[in-house]
Records
---
Amino acid sequence: MDADLDLGVIGNCAWGGLVDRHGRLVWACLPRFDSDPLFPALVAGGSDHDGAFAVELLGLESSEQRYEGSTPILLTTLRDGAGSALEVRDFAPRFVNFGRIHRPTMLIRRIRPLEGEPRIRIVVGPAAATASTDPWSPAAAIICVSSRRR
């Protein structure tokens, strides 16, 4: 897949990532900005899954991306040819607790069906930039899948 530079930015001032219009996290240096990229699919080439954290809608026809209001929450809507749709809500939490700002190395991806019965595939393909890098370094990912419609 050619690199698509129409990307959404997510992060919490401790780490940052880039999400393409198809719901794939294609760039993220974890656990900090100065770390080697754990998800380098944007520049790595190779297959669609090498170095990406993908939420794929089977039979994808179209997609759109926007931020929720004036927040750093990225919404990606994926639609298939059968009329099904889903929303992927991506964000990196940042909060105040006991008077201190906490920025955990955490990505929250909430997947919610919008229409029909979407069929999805979730692929987590971290890649090490060098042989000395462990692709399963202390990076946290939380995946919440909701079957309820609102």
---
Amino acid sequence: MQCNGDGSRFLPFLVLCVLACGCRQDMHNQPKYIPYRPSTFFLDTRSERDPVPGTIARGTLVEDELLQTGKQAGADATVFPFPVDVELLRRGQERFNIFCSPCHGRDGDGAGMVVQRGYRRPPLSTRTASGRPHQGISLM
């Protein structure tokens, strides 16, 4: 094959390829329902659907300040937002062992396996956490 260097033979092919790439209308002309327009698909002829039972609309969630922030009336709380029992302590230990102990160590001394492999010691360990109120630890 000999190349004459002008490339004029391939220019129409290149233009055709570029134009063909712009012809896909999959997302532009997709079937959809416009709110408050009639629909023949549903028996009640409405295009809009009722919310799924139990759905919470944006901005209507009733928040529990104590549970969400660890504060009561803007001040640090001195109580837990739920009863602490053996089952809760076991779950907390399980979660700590899975998610926290790689850095903080199983004993909370800050000498987990990640630290032993050369990373910096985490900022919170049992030495620094003792004496802190519970909400201060949970929000870190």
---
Amino acid sequence: MSRGNCGIRARMLPVERASLAVIGGAVWPPRARTTAVAVLNDRIIAVGSDEEVRSLCDRNTRIVEARGGSILPLFNDAHVPLPEWRPAESGSSTCHPPRRLADVERQVTGYAATHSDAWVVGRGWYYSAFPGGLPTVELLDRLVPDRPAYIESFDTHTAWVNSRAFKSTGISTWRDARSPQRVGDGRLLASSAVARRRARP
């Protein structure tokens, strides 16, 4: 990185000056002669050749030399497993996670009562809402007794499923689900195995 005067072109009209310029790279998506990007605060103001972008610089512009590397917009997060990150599926329930068990039960039964999909699908429960930190198959069997149910935790690491979901996917025990976490006392949880095998409505 370097900071310095970029050789301002004389212009008749006022021109926005870049606060950041990334030059000497390969801009994505690729276009002819696009090797640089000019940014003003949080906004891209120009994409073009190094010469074109340098014309938008002044002595306050921070210049980054890409050295032939890719220049592209990105989504940056400290902890999002990208294969699991996705918008809620159409027809699914995304909870506003309640902290009390009674409120979890109310949300699940309320959603199931007003949606006739082949599966009850949702996301958003907190571990702390359940005694011992984990929900049970038996509880979900009581809340959704008539069809399969699959509800992911707020962090998408765990899925809460009922007996009908296991039966529908051919999974009968936690061993079949290949869960890395052994859960006893009826607290049978499945994650990716049920998701992969779940029959889509």
